[in-house]
Write a structure and sequence with these properties.
- By secondary structure, the chain is mainly beta.
- The protein has one domain: Tachylectin-2, Chain A (5 Propeller), CATH 2.115.10.
- The chain has three helices and 23 strands.
- Strands 8, 9, 10, 11 and 12 form a five-stranded antiparallel beta sheet that branches. A four-stranded antiparallel beta sheet has the order 1-23-22-21. It has a four-stranded antiparallel beta sheet with strand order 2-3-6-7.
- The longest helix has 17 residues.
């Protein structure tokens, strides 16, 4: 791997670590009751936790207000992963590791002619993976997650201490397990199970609560750390289906995703699709989409870059985004792509 490529990946990873703050022990312990409270989200030295009003690093939210259709994104690095990655889903960065979730399909789902028992398709079979890498992209550990029909990991989030991973059935209106993985020890804890397919999750550090989005990101839900549902709401936006999200101070959620749209008749009609990519900032207090922007740059395999794994950081008005849109068997295999842009935040 070239020096330039290594520097680009390390810069993106370092920026993500600098922008992360650990989830506070006191508020989380209160939310979790007696369920491993001592091990959930203990704050790191010098960091603030949920409910602490000193969590005011709004650099990313402020900078994203300057992103629009004319933002000049430049790809600055490409990191090829040299191990089987299957169908990639979410990405997250800790101080020492890159985490990548993926699903290995061993039996594809099959659509029913008519719904059966509330489902529109068979469960299929597969294996859920959380790959743990060093900053050069070398595989250090393959953590297998899931139970029974719940084998599909989704978008993931790092809260400064734990990586949160939803693993769902590969069909809507089903069920999911929410896992937390200690980013240092890599120990896995099954936090709780929920009804419905949840394909993305973030930890709101202001409240100490988890927020997840369902199949196609059509609905959101908020839970305490015992899995008690506190609220639910419909997605007011139909621009793209969110695939991977991250927490943004204060009480915001930045997501990226894709929508497959039919082509013109000359380009194949409904038998062919066009991938529309985009990003959206969601206010978790008002539950409104405060800004959404298309993103149309393409991977080696021809996918829009925001197709699946996505994370972004800000240093002043400079944004760095990492994505990994290609599956392991496509194009040049899975590559972590880094894009950078300078923006002028909105007044």
């Amino acid at each position: 791997m070239s020096t330039t490529r290594t520097r680009g990946i390390l810069t993106a990873a370092a920026a993500i670590i600098l922008s992360a703050s650990a989830i506070g022990g006191t508020a989380v312990a209160q939310a979790a009751g007696n369920q491993d409270a001592a091990s959930i989200g203990q704050p790191q030295a010098g960091t603030a936790g949920p409910g602490d009003h000193h969590v005011t690093d709004t650099a990313l939210a402020d900078a994203f207000d300057g992103v629009d259709r004319n933002t000049n994104w430049t790809r600055t690095s490409k990191l090829k992963l040299n191990f089987p990655t299957y169908h990639t889903e979410g990405i997250a960065y800790s101080r020492d590791h890159i985490f990548l979730s993926a699903v290995q399909i061993t039996e594809p789902t099959r659509k029913f002619a008519a719904p059966q028992d509330g489902f529109d398709r068979t469960p299929g079979k597969g294996i859920g993976h959380l790959f743990v890498m060093d900053k050069a992209g070398n595989l250090q550990k393959d953590i297998v997650l899931g139970e029974g029909d719940m084998y599909h990991p989704g978008g993931i989030d790092f809260d400064g201490t734990n990586v949160w991973v939803p693993v769902a059935q590969y069909r809507p209106d089903s069920s999911a397990i929410i896992y937390r993985v200690d980013a240092k020890t890599l120990t896995v804890h099954k936090q709780f199970e929920v009804k419905d397919h949840f394909g993305g999750i973030v930890m709101d550090k202001q409240t100490g609560h988890l927020v997840g989005n369902t199949w196609g990101s059509r609905r959101f839900a908020e839970w305490d750390l015992n899995g008690r549902q506190l609220s639910t709401w419909q997605n007011p936006d139909f621009f793209v289906d969110y695939q991977d999200c991250q927490y943004v101070p204060n009480s915001k959620m930045l997501c990226a995703g894709v929508t497959n749209l039919p082509q013109t008749p000359a380009a194949g009609g409904t038998a062919a699709t066009y991938e529309l990519g985009g990003m959206a900032m969601i206010d978790l207090k008002s539950r409104n989409v405060v800004r959404d922007v298309p993103f149309q740059q393409w991977s080696t395999a021809g996918h829009v870059a925001t197709r699946n794994p996505f994370k972004m950081t800000a240093a002043g008005n400079h944004l760095t985004m990492t994505v990994a849109p290609d599956n392991g068997e496509e194009g040049n295999g899975t590559e972590i792509l880094t894009y950078e842009a300078d923006v002028t935040p909105a007044k």
